[in-house]
Design brief:
TIM Barrel, globular, seven-stranded mixed sheet, 454 residues, Urease, subunit C, domain 1, nine-stranded parallel sheet, 2 domains, single chain
Length: 454
């Protein structure tokens, strides 16, 4: 039977309209004038006086990964369920190679892990860590053929993830040939190492000093180097988790010079600042790069939709017990914050508070990420697109507590937000109704993504 989302205001990236959404199978069959939909025989989702948005697309998550001696607490089942509660109906995760694997083999392994567990659609980015040898470089094209035309590299975490700039340049050359997008964690490791060494000499390497351990100049310096390499190689580059408006300006400058340069930020860099590290549980906020000044956070808001085209979670689900093991040494605290469930609610709340528009939320969290990352059928409610949508009550107010992520804390605990996600539909199936889980067996599908345009 068809499904009709009736009585709501549909939000597209182009604006709002009063329309009923007709779902047939797993696709949007039409946006109907409410006066014309009365005669349809369909299961009805009542969206009267509510907002209907495309489901969120989160292109930056870390699920079930190991970092040093720590492993995140979630798996594809728990993480994608939490994502759905938070209005995200498709996500992209990373396939970090294990010893002996090339990037394509890692993608195949991760697809197998997620299949049968994920309750929403999923895809993967390839990755190259430590060494960009011939097999790793050849894996970029093989991964693209598998539907993973992105490759992640790091200029940080020496001995774990980091590539030297010469290797980054080699990755960019191969990615340009494969029409794959290069995602970069941009921090200059030598600057970080010097800063950490100086803090340790002074005996102040705990969470309170985490921003000094990974100073903004490390991010800015790496971003400039990476953007220059992209200009040299013709590669398309995407800077992840941008924390500084100055880095966003470098992206805009590179784009004006003809470089295909893009960037994202994350909710924690928009809604929080470095003062969190001086709270009683400052270790819970340790992530890389760290939160910056309140001035930097305000500056990032002004770059959204121009220099920065996406807001993504960088979800990394450690818990408070793991965080406090090395609370006295921020370099050993597992870096990352749980956030796959809170991204959309925070941005929706910001729109309802007048900080940006609701179509901006759609652009930043759904349509533009889907377009840039080649996710056909995602990010819009136009006819023919996947029937992924959320229904939001704009009048509701609540606090961010009692979440569904596989951890015991959120960095946004107690924050009052406006709007509540009442209904979530993914692939035409209702997963959340009246805020309660009603989904059946996991039905998330692997997303085979398109390569970049030549």
């Amino acid at each position: 039977m068809d499904t009709l989302v009736r009585g709501g205001t549909v939000v597209l990236e182009s604006g709002r309209l009063r329309a009923d959404v007709l779902i047939r199978g797993s696709r949007v069959a039409g946006l109907l004038d409410p006066r014309e939909s009365a005669g349809f025989k369909a299961r009805v989702i009542d969206a009267s006086d509510l907002l209907v948005l495309p489901g969120g697309v989160d292109v930056h998550t870390h699920i079930g990964i190991q970092f040093g001696e720590f492993t995140t607490r979630d798996d594809f089942g728990s993480a994608t369920r939490a994502a759905a509660f938070g209005g995200t109906t498709s996500l992209l995760e990373f396939a970090f190679p294990e010893p002996g694997e090339d990037p394509a083999e890692a993608v195949e392994r991760r697809i197998s892990q997620a299949s049968g567990q994920a309750v929403i659609d999923f895809g993967f980015h390839a990755a190259i860590a430590q060494h960009a040898d011939a097999d790793a470089l050849a894996g970029i094209e093989r991964a693209a053929k598998l539907g993973a035309p992105t490759v992640k590299v790091f200029t940080a975490y020496r001995g774990i993830m980091m590539l030297e700039l010469g290797d980054v340049m080699a990755v960019m050359r191969e990615a340009a040939k494969a029409r794959s997008l290069v995602m970069v964690h941009a921090e200059t490791e030598a600057i970080v190492e010097r800063a950490v060494g100086e803090l340790r000499e002074r005996g102040i390497a705990d969470a309170r000093h985490h921003p000094q351990a990974r100073p903004g100049i490390a991010e800015l310096d790496a971003a400039r180097s990476v953007l220059r390499l992209a200009a040299e190689t013709g590669a398309a580059v995407y800077l992840v988790h941008v924390t500084l408006p100055e880095v966003a300006e470098e992206i805009a400058r590179a784009r004006a010079d003809g470089v295909r340069a893009y960037g994202e930020t994350c909710p924690h860099y928009l809604f929080l600042d470095e003062s969190v590290y001086s709270t009683p549980h400052g270790e819970r906020f340790v992530c890389s790069p760290p939160m910056r000044s309140a001035t930097a956070a305000r500056g990032l808001w002004r770059t959204l939709g121009t220099s920065l085209t996406g807001v993504h979670s960088d979800h990394c689900c450690f818990d408070s017990e793991q965080k406090k093991v090395y609370a006295s040494d921020s370099t050993r605290i597992p870096p990352g914050l749980p956030g796959v469930e809170t991204r959309m609610p925070l941005l929706i709340s910001a729109a309802l508070s007048g900080r940006l528009s609701m179509p901006d939320v759609v652009r930043l969290c759904s349509s533009e990420p889907a377009r840039l990352f080649g996710m056909q059928g995602k990010g819009s409610l136009l006819p023919g697109m996947d029937a992924d949508l959320i229904v939001v009550d704009p009048r509701a107010r609540h606090r961010l507590d009692g979440l569904h992520m596989a951890t015991d804390y959120t960095p946004f605990a107690g924050m009052e937000i406006r709007g509540r996600i009442e209904t979530v539909v993914a692939g035409g199936e209702v997963l959340v109704s009246a805020g309660r889980w009603v989904g059946e067996k996991p039905a998330g599908r692997y997303i085979r993504r398109r390569r970049l345009e030549a």
